[in-house]
Specification:
- The protein has a single domain, classed as Vaccinia Virus protein VP39 (Rossmann fold, 3-Layer(aba) Sandwich), CATH 3.40.50.150.
- It contains 16 helices and twelve strands.
- It has helices at 2-15, 40-56, 60-68, 83-91, 98-111, 120-123, 164-169, 186-193, 207-220, 223-227, 241-244, 261-266, 278-282, 284-298, 318-332, 342-347; strands spanning 74-77, 96-97, 131-133, 155-158, 175-179, 197-203, 231-234, 249-255, 299-309, 336-338, 362-364, 375-382.
- Helix 14 (284-298) packs across helix 15.
- The chain is globular.
- The model is unreliable at 1-6 and 15-22 (pLDDT under 50).
Length: 384
Amino acid sequence: MAALTLRGVRELLKRVDFATVPRRHRHKKKWAATEPKFPAVRLALQYFDMTYSVQFGDLWPSIRVSLLSEQKYGALVNNFAAWDHVSAKLEQLSAKDFVNEAISHWELQSEGGRSAAPSPASWACSPNLRCFTFARGDVSRFPPARPGSLGVMDYYLMDAASLLPVLALGLQPGDIVLDLCAAPGGKTLALLQTGCCRNLAANDLSTSRIARLQKILHSYVPQEIRDGNRVRVTSWDGRKWGELEGDTYDRVLVDVPCTTDRHSLHEEENNIFKRSRKKERQILPVLQMQLLAAGLLATKPGGHVVYSTCSLSHLQNEYVVQGAIELLANQYSIQVQVEDLTHFRRLFMDTFCFFSSCQVGELVIPNLMANFGPMYFCKMHRLT
């Protein structure tokens, strides 16, 4: 019976005309094909698990879950729009201006004698910035921004932690400012919102990213400011800025290219963990140090620089700062002092979750209750 069954199957197979089988049901083994490679997002997670579990220890599982969860945003009010009307509209959503609320709270404490006010130089936050966020644990989302009555967009949605480097820069009215790695443009827009920039140079080496910056400026900034002498957009190699315009700027923001940790875990496009970009990723700290050194050289003696990344890596954060300071001391006899931002952490601790063990600078770590960041920033004072 078994033999008859087997013979019957063979006869049936002979009669089958495989040409009639729809193409979608056919399978052809491609012997020369290689096995599919790991997607870049998976390679990024493997790398982070290996390195950040050592760097952060018991904190890493919480940070990891937060990085893989939906990011939280803030709404930066456009002061070139009808900002008071925009602020009222955002308040109706039960969002709060975390910047001015924190400063008001601190001032009340200082007046009551419950906290010693820091020295004015280290205290200074860049003024006129209004950014609304939802309370801790509130995962509400802001509606997309729309053009207001003055023809520009009402607010700009960004990771609220990205505003901290601009706040820490402590702009003063009449400052000449450089944003060395400006694209895609959120921090450049924030710098303009302060109303302090006598001149702002916004630079980025990537022409495609510069196009995104120009689009943001066109959507949020009135034409008379864009076309006047107040904003200059360039696409030069930032590493050479010290040679091009040394000792020129009062304030310099160096928001360098980095592993963009959150993006690397969610987007295949332009992911630095692609195998083809391995060498580029490995030399990132060198590039970052060169850019920071150029930013410090472009600063006037007595001026300030803020270095920032959206990475958790101490190799891209503290080590770069320390390396650039040593480089300037050894090769140029220029002394640079790191500013203590402890008070800054205290000021905004109700909105963000800060890592308490940075050697220099401050680091916002993602947390499910306040899922901003990562954002590292360090303020430096060029002494000579």
